[in-house]
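Fig. S4 source data, part A: sequence.
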Amino acid sequence: MENKEILLNNSIKNLEIKQKKIELKSTPSYVTIGAHYGCNAQCVFCLGGSYPSFSLRKYKEFFEPKISHVLKKAINVGFCGFGELLIHPEIKEILDYLNQTIPVQAKAFTTNGIALNETICQKLTDGRYDVMISMHGANARLHEQMTRTKKFNDIVNNIKRLVQLKKEKNSKLSISMVFVVTQQNIDNLCDFIKFSQDLGTDCVCANYLTMYEKEHVDMSVFWQKERTNDILCQAEELKKNLSFSVNLPLKFQKYQKTEKASCRDPWEFFYTEVQGSVNPCCLAGDHIGNLNNDTFEAIWNSDGYKMLRQGIVTGNIHNWCKNCLKYDKNNVNKLMAHITFRLETQKMLLEYILKNNQKYNLKQEDIGFNI
């Protein structure tokens, strides 16, 4: 029954997108719950901060009554928030419960890999999970520099255990290796790709750093476009001869501009944090609703969601979307695509960069609006 529900919902969704529907009968195929928890690393690019913690009780008493009917029709349900959920004292119970209640859906978790002990690896390979392991370096020295931990060898052994169990059980588990591209580690990208394949993982996902704090500004490769492009070209050549997937960020160059945006997130994606606030995508500059105040249906077809869909259909793009790469690949060449879309933080970072523009030599065409 659940498989049929998913297939039917996805078929309706694809038809609604094709027909450019603004008010939807289908529900999102991708739902993420910001399952925040503490962390056992201090990655240099992390936003940090203090957030309410996810718990199994919160999931059962708040999220299930609100969106269980949505989760059962989703393709992928993410439990990706700030921190490291796999060190949660209830993690074994959480994984068991999810495997029982939404067994068909791919359940996504991000992790730094430190907590991938034998028990957790067993449970992950017993179900349908997507595990995204953030390492950002193919050697112990660089890994320590990026994550401020000395656990490289332990993590490598944990990944080997997970890969071996996946093979033994013929598990549906997907293992991705995550690489946040910065000035500190970009020279290691090709080695990281080869390292990830040698470990037997399924995929490498490399993405540019998003600036959230002043300390992030000098870490961004936005200021080193030529060097970045050279390494991305090397990575593109390397991936041609590999037997697994490599997802690379866009190079800094001119792209043929399409007439209209192609982003499907307003039709496909729903993100809700532990505290109930809702975002239409991972990059949005503000909340679009709150499950404490409204039903899923009221938020999904709210004026906010419909405005985003209408903007994509008509080309009158919402301000949240104008600097996004999904709207225009050429935005990769603009500073605004590399800074958080949160307005107050964005303003603070722009003021800092412009104040120090003698160092950055930022031109009007580099930022996206008049300086």
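Fig. S4 source data, part B ends here. The mean pLDDT is 93.
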